[in-house]
Amino acid sequence: MKAKSQQKNPQTEDPGLTQAIQSYQDGLRALQERKFERAKSLFQKAMTGPNKELADRAAVHLSACNQYLDRTSTSFQSPEEHYDYAISLINLGDFVGAREHLDELQKQASHSDYVYYGLSVLNCLTGHFEDSLRNLAEAIRLNPNNRFQARNDSDFNNLADDPRFTELLYPESSEGPYSTASGASQ
Fold it and tell me: What is the per-residue pLDDT for 73?
């Protein structure tokens, strides 16, 4: 029994090894969640630890991350191309990746209606209905044609019964039958 406790103590006493193990475990989690950039940095940290076997395992996973990132290089010629990529991630169900790209686009092209439209779709699909409505309202404000696009977009099915969504898409029906008459007399 003493031999076992003596073997455990050096590992638990070495903060470098503890950190490397934690980085490796966090890297595996990030890899499973398809967060390749994060996983890459965590595996790089794990490789700097004192355990050669752990460093070798981390190197294998790091190589996999690099291969994936090389295949999905994200250098875009234009914001529109970047947007198309983000929408393709939504269509693949990679909502986390899509959000990262749309957030980045929002910083780069903050006055682009299509970015707000994409965020609205993403928020609707992920159950963030308030954010979806807010982003859709901004997309429509920037480009009223988005109103007509949203009317036929099945990605908004989760909001179809929400009266706020209906008012946003059909403002003429929310004015009431007498609004034009009372507006004309003013």
Answer: 58
